[in-house]
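job 3f2a | input accepted
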Amino acid sequence: MASTISAPNTGAADGPPSSDRARRIEVHGIDHIPERERHGRARELFAVWAAANVNYLSLVVGGALILMGLSLWQALTVIVVGNLFWVPVGLLAVSGPASGTPSEVIMRAMFGVRGNRVNIAVTGWVICICYIALNLAAAALAAFSLVEKAGITPNTGVKTAVVVGIAALTLAISVYGHATIVKLYLPITVVLTAAFAVVAFSVLGHADFGYEPAEPLTGGSLWAALAGGVTLIASGPLSYTNSADFSRYLPRATSPKAIVGWTALGGFLPSVVVTALGALAATAVDMTDPQTALETILPTWFTPVFLLALVLGTIAINAMTAYSSGLALQAVGVRIRRSLSVIVDGVVGVALTLYALLVSNFLDTVSNVLQLTVVLLGPSMAIYATDILLRRNRYDGPGLTDETPDSPFWFTAGVNWAGALALTAGTAAAALCVNTVYAGPLARALDGVDLALPVGIAVASALYVVMMRRSRSAPGTEMRA
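job 3f2a | predicted structure (481 res):
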């Protein structure tokens, strides 16, 4: 059954309900949001996603494309193509208002009540924790520079305190939840846009728009770099199979086209602009150390502001990730309040962050983790999007929250084998084609060209369609009042 108790709507008729107001800890977790408690408009989603995508990691990834050996225009093309995966993120978001539940619960329709616990544990919770650690590490690196400029030596103790402090601010937003995120992210978007406008002015003044590497890539090497670049960029939007988490409070009658459009646009525009700035900067400075390199071309007075903007942007993206990780922990079956689950995940994320900063190479970690996650997240997103299309976005919200054998989403012993086998096959196919931490046999046969993303998506989606159609009809498509 639902993991949290739903509070009655005691809010004003012309405002949000008391269960979801800014500056109050959100009442709901993975339970169903009744229609009487729905509120807001689709356009609010733009600022939510925009604030989360004006960040340091996008600059790092943009610079990495040039370091991979691409020319500037090849890198810019890769950036646009990879970010087109924000469109399926928008598609997934339409299931939130349709069901009144978060993505972590909606996916029971694809994997079954029990099967989804395994799915969410891996594709939801574990990957969210990894991203929390990576983003927190990015914010900490900027904060370390601020501390050093203040005359304080960033030793291990200071670094630990900085990481914990940033984590506390991030988790505070996540604990307060949905309404606070919606309220805060519009001004955060405005502030970050202003800061990155200054960055853009400086970068454009130094960039080499005709940049070509000293030894241009050709043939198989070029295709390998292009495919790897698209995979690297696409890994960002692919990590948001949880987009319904932030749309589920919208009224059921909200236009699906508006939800898709505002969500996709909020992710696409800032991601393209900021990642392109990283690529442009790499034509003028050495982006193997992005933060230090960028400081050499920025006005001296702006450097502290830039560092603060990096911290703020990373807090914005991480608050969303931590919010969803808390829902994922509940969906796995842990009986804990959402606010407490966020704190638990934050503690785990801090531990991983300290490891990433004090033991491993940050840039290598970012590249490897982002590229490897598409092996799982590509097929997972494909199955989710395919299910929405098969059901025509009709989801029984109360039925989805029923975890008993009487649930319309119990399937066979709690597992929907169509989803489980499609995800397994899609992941296996992608693993054969991947070329990142390791090279799969098909990638080696293709001279290093990484086709994990298209192959994983195609196999998972096709197999899911075939198996669901063989089951005559998808259960749980009826709507309950």
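job 3f2a | The domain at 39-374 is CATH 1.10.4160.10 (Hydantoin permease).
job 3f2a | closed
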